[in-house]
Amino acid sequence: MESALSSNDADFRRRIRSDVPHSARVWNAWLGGKDNYPVDRELADVVSAAYPQTVDIARASRAFQVRAVRYLAGLGVRQFLDVGTGLPVENSTHEVAQSIVPQARIVYVDNDPIVLVHAAALLTSAPEGRTDYVEADLSDTDAVVEAASKTLDLSEPVAVMLLSTLGHLAPAEGIEVVQRYMARMPSGSCLVLCDTVKTPATLAAEKAYASGDNPPYLVREPEEITGCAEGLELVEPGFVSISQWRPAAGEETVPVDQWGLVARKP
Ligand SMILES: C[S@@+](CC[C@H](N)C(=O)[O-])C[C@H]1O[C@@H](n2cnc3c(N)ncnc32)[C@H](O)[C@@H]1O
C-alpha cells in the first residue's frame, strides 16, 4: 500500500493516517480490494461480525451505481458529479458512462487524501469526454460546484451522485447539502442516492463502526433519505432496496438494508 504513495509532501503524507481507519479504505476492504491497511481491515471485520450483511451492501451499492449510471447515460445524461467517490474500483462512473456516451464528463469529489493518491485511475477519460478530481469537503457545496464547473457545463443536466456517503453527515445536514447541490443544477438534472436504513441490525452496525475512533456513519430513517429528493420526480421503481432498483437479468435481488433512488429535477 505504501508504494501507492507518490506525493513527497510531508503534510500530505501525515494526512494519510495508517493508524486510524478511513471510510474509503474500510469500504475498499469490504469490496475485497487491496488499498487498505490492517487498521481498516480490523474495523471492516468488527462491523461485518456485528452485521453480516455489510459486504452484501457494499457490493449492492456498487451494482446500483453501475445500473443507475448506465440508465441515465442511456437517457442522454452526459455529465456526472460523483460525490464521495471512494477508491477506484472496476466500473467507475466514467468507465460506465463513457462506455455508453463517450463524450460524458465526470467530476469526482472526495476529501480523503488516499483517494487523491489513486485519482490517476479516475482520470483515464475517453478522448471524446473529460474527467476531473476535486479534493473537497462535500458539505462545502459552493466550492465543489465552483470547481466542478471547470469541467461540467452547468447549463446542461448533471447527475449528482451520493452513494453510501451521506451517512457521514447528520441526517438534517445531509438533506440540506443535497438540496443545495440540486438547487445549483439546471432542470433535467438527476439525483442518485443510497444510504443505510435504520433497523436494530443496522444500528448495531453503526455502533460497531463508531468503535473505530473514526467519523461515524449514521443510519437513516427512510424519510431522512427521501427528504433529500423533495421537489424532484422519482424515477420508477421509486425509493426501494437498491438490489431491487431495475436489476439486470440474473442480478441478485434479495433486499438489503441499503435503500436508494434516482430522481429528476423538473
Ligand atoms: C463508504 S465510501 C463510498 C464510496 C463510493 N461512493 C461507493 O459507493 O463505492 C464513502 C466515501 O465518502 C467520502 N467522504 C466522507 N466524508 C466526506 C466529506 N465530508 N467530503 C467528501 N467526501 C467524504 C469518504 O472518503 C469515502 O470515500
Overview of the molecule:
The protein is α/β, with parallel strands linked by helices and 266 residues long. It has a single domain, classed as Vaccinia Virus protein VP39 (Rossmann fold). It is built from 10 helices and 8 strands. The protein has helices spanning 10-15, 23-30, 38-50, 54-74, 93-100, 113-117, 141-148, 171-183, 200-210, 222-226, and strands spanning 79-83, 105-110, 130-135, 159-163, 190-196, 233-234, 240-241, 258-264. Strands 1, 2, 3, 4, 5, 6, 7 and 8 form an 8-stranded mixed sheet that branches.
Count of discrete structural domains: 1
The CATH class is Alpha Beta
Major beta sheet summary: 8 strands, mixed
Bound molecules: S-adenosylmethionine
How many β-strand stretches?
A: 8
Which architecture name does CATH use? 3-Layer(aba) Sandwich
Structural class based on helices, strands and sheet pairing: alpha/beta
| Percent in strands | 15-25%
Count of helical stretches: 10
SSE sequence, one letter per element? HHHHEHEHEHEHEHHEEE
Task: Tell me roughly what share of residues is in helical segments.
Answer: 25-40%
Mean pLDDT: 93
Tell the overall outline: globular
Structure summarized in a few sentences:
By secondary structure, this protein is α/β, with parallel strands linked by helices.
List the helices and strands and how they pair.
Elements: H1 10-15, H2 23-30, H3 38-50, H4 54-74, E1 79-83, H5 93-100, E2 105-110, H6 113-117, E3 130-135, H7 141-148, E4 159-163, H8 171-183, E5 190-196, H9 200-210, H10 222-226, E6 233-234, E7 240-241, E8 258-264
Parallel strand pairs: 1-2, 1-4, 2-3, 4-5
Antiparallel strand pairs: 5-8, 6-8, 7-8
Helix pairs in contact: 2-3, 3-9, 4-5
The structure holds S-adenosylmethionine.
